Amino acid sequence: MADRKAGYIPEIQGLRTLALLMVATFHIWFGKVSGGVDVFLLVSAYLMTRSLALRSEGGSITRPVSYLIKKFSRLLPAAAVTIALITVGVFAFLPANHWQGSLSDALGSLFYFENMRLQDATVDYFAADRSSASPFQHFWSLSVQGQVFILFALLHLIGDAGARYLGFPVRKMLLGMFSVLAVGSFAYSVWLTDQNQAYAYFDTAARVWEFAVGSVLALVQPWLRVPWIVRSCASWLGIVAMLACGFVLPVESSFPGWAALWPVSAAALVIISAGAPTRFGADRILAHGALNKLGGYTYALYLTHWPVLVLFLWAVGLERVNWWQGLLILGVSGALSFVIARCFERPVAAWLKRDRPARKRWLPRTGWRSPVAILLSIVLVVGVVGAGTMRLTQQLRQDRAAIEALRVSEAGANAPGMTSRDTGPLPAVSLVTSDWVSAGQDCAADDPFLTELCYEIPAVEGEAERVVYAIGSSHSTQFNAALLEAVNRHPGWGFRTQVSPGCYYMSREGVGPECVDLWDRAAAYIATQQPDLVVLFGTQTYHEFEMTQPDLVDWIDDARHSYPGTRFVAMRDNPRIPTSLFECATRFGYDSDDCAFRYETSTDPAYIAALEEVGVIWVDLNGFICPDRECRPSQGGVVTYLDESHLTGTYVRTLAQKFSNAIVPAVDWWPRRVYEEGAFTDRARGNDVLEDLNR
Questions:
Q1: How far apart are CA 487 and CA 460, in angstroms?
Q2: Got the DSSP string for 406-442?
Q3: Which residue of 86, 394, 467, 595 has the smallest Cβ count within 10 Å?
Q4: Could you tell me what percent of the chain has a pLDDT over 70?
Q5: What's this model's pTM, rounded to 2 decimal places?
Q6: How far is residue 179's CA from residue 524's CA, in Å, rounded to a whole number?
Q7: pLDDT tens for residues 49-102?
Q8: DSSP 3-state assignment of 534?
């Protein structure tokens, strides 16, 4: 192949257009990954290195700052307009519980770290239900691309400087660098995909090799001499392989490791086939004017198609679209991309072309227009996010006021026949997923029984008259709301809780050393501090069965012998739901039968008898949580579940009297009428339990 100067390559433009159409088609109709994004990643690095390498060979050393300012000044305006439009759409179509996350996603998309946000949130990119995804989720690839642009610009500078210092050809120097990077990143990608595929999908280091392969292609292409017949066959093979990728490969479980070699290799075949026109090659299609003209809208179409899909699914309450709905989404996305490209992307690009480099050599080789374009893009998004934050703050203030006015003694489990209010049950949607129970201040650092997650509420004055001690998992954390309903009405009582995620006595060895440590220290605390009441969970539920904890019986028996005055309560674990009832309710309504789940699990009577034989008080409140074994998003005007397994703190407060009714016959000092014994004063504020549990 002849050595070609930097310039327009119609086959590459056609390749990008085809890849974009694959991405949009698979997202909209198939709910799968097509491999088109992998093609984009390779092509972007190919074009970058092709341009910078030719400049370096012409004697110009790479100036990373200048290059990146120009690059982002072209990319950001269209992205910023799209981000602003998506943010407006979120507030118009999505419930308030999605607003805060979307505002953070908007900033993550603007500043090119959205992929890291998705990693931290353990997002499953391959989830079948696209309606539950973030409308900003597609910005993960642009974030990775932006990060790699910065990295590769620096690598080009290092390669240029190293080649000059060593007197080595710059192209060979860069080839060696990018080849090593490609091999190392690919090995890491294969390993990480095997360890945690969902995390690897968004990981920049696991994706760098795809960019590096594009750079290697750009560097070796001038040396290639490929006969036209080989180029013709290779181009068709590449196109067919690229189109077949999403259908042939199990992309939902294999990307971006070994499987990503398929679309990367397919794109490479097309690129090495680029050159003089052939009679029978795929360039006859890729270089066609219509496909290349459409390519001018590919960036805008990529920006718009995903949010239009997600917002449409939310607006109509669907999980997937049919063929005509998909055509509607594609049509709306195309219209938006046309407007964004014609009204923003192209005018800004034309305006930037009139820029003149700064005269002082130490300044970036750009004029004032490029930095201004970047600054205005940032101002637009930050302004929209600021306005959204003000709207969210106002909504949260109203919703918190409604919670404070709620009479828990007349709602939830205490009023099963209550109908939902016109505005929906409480907490309002903006607060449900954050309705975790705060259980007090962190235990003292020198506490001899300290565990990783330990909280205490001391008596208001002097030594506590009674001490209530709760042990267990995040389910135990949520049930603390019922216990605190009594504790916070008795200033002379103290409260202590020690928890660990997923920590039940039966699972302590499998969960980790923190869980083992919790139970060991709990036994020592009971023997030494002699609390009046210990509350723990006696079973662990799953969707289709319920596990008892026979070994817990012996643990409790030993603890009771260390101090017979302590009373033990074993709670039956609340049912777990396959999907979030709350998310279902936000889409279909709290009264929808589609959002009901019937559980059939039961507890072994012999196990309950064994607990009671050692003096344990067995408490089963599931009949109130899910009356007649049917779990619904709300009961008595209160939201029941905040996710698939955790009850809302507000609903658990309404279980306080039911808990009291169950233990008062055996614990005579516990209040018989919980809500009437003193004013409720929240003494448990001060820690973010959800953040602690996720640590």
A1: 11
A2: --GGGSGGG-TTPPPPTT-SBSPTTTGGG-PPP--EE
A3: 394
A4: 94
A5: 0.85
A6: 58
A7: 999 999 999 888 899 999 999 999 999 999 999 999 999 999 999 999 999 999
A8: strand
Instruction: Answer yes or no: are the C-beta atoms of 78 and 179 closer than 8 Å.
Output: no
Q: CA-CA distances (angstroms) from residue 645 to 144, 538, 541?
A: 34, 16, 9
- Which value, in Å, is the radius of gyration of the alpha carbons in the chain? 31
Neighbours of 234 (CB within 10 A): 19
Looking only at the bridges linking them, the beta strands covering 441-442 and 493-499 are unpaired
Report how far residue 449's alpha carbon sits from residue 469's, in angstroms, rounded to the nearest whole number: 13
Percent of the chain with pLDDT over 90: 65
Q: Are 669 and 685 in contact (CB under 8 A)?
A: no
Question: Is the four-CA dihedral 63, 66, 71, 75 of positive or negative sign?
Answer: positive
What distances in angstroms separate CA 299 from CA 90, 341, 351, one per listed residue? 21, 8, 19
Q: Which of 158, 143, 281 is nearest to 201 (CA)?
A: 143
| 474 token code pair | 């995040």
Alpha carbon distances (Å) from 428 to 373, 398, 606, 648: 40, 9, 41, 11
Rounded CA-CA distance 617/662 in Å is: 8
In this structure, are residues 493 and 466 in contact, taking their beta carbons and an 8 Å threshold?
yes
Q: What is the mean pLDDT of residues 479-493?
A: 95
Burial class, 228, CB count within 10 angstroms (exposed 0-12 / middle 13-18 / buried 19+): middle
C-beta of residue 320 within 8 angstroms of C-beta of residue 31 = yes
Burial class (CB in 10 A: 0-12, 13-18, 19+), 43: buried
Which of 559, 107, 34 shows the shortest CA–CA distance to 255?
34
* Distance (Å, whole) CA 272 – CA 412: 67
Segment 354-375 shows an average pLDDT of 80
547 token code pair: 């596990």
Q: How far apart are CA 408 and CA 485, in angstroms?
A: 10
Query: Cα separation of 449 and 441, whole Å?
Result: 15
Query: Could you tell me if 304 and 336 are in contact, meaning their C-beta atoms sit under 8 angstroms apart?
Result: yes
Contacts of 112 (CB under 8 A, 6+ apart): 142, 143, 145, 146, 147
pLDDT tens per residue across span 159-200: 999 999 998 999 999 999 999 999 999 999 999 999 998 899
Do the beta carbons of residue 273 and residue 235 sit within 8 Å?
Answer: yes
485 phi and psi angles, rounded to 5 deg: -60, -35
Categorize the per-residue pLDDT at 695 as very low, low, confident or very high, splitting at 50, 70 and 90: low
pLDDT of residue 362: 58
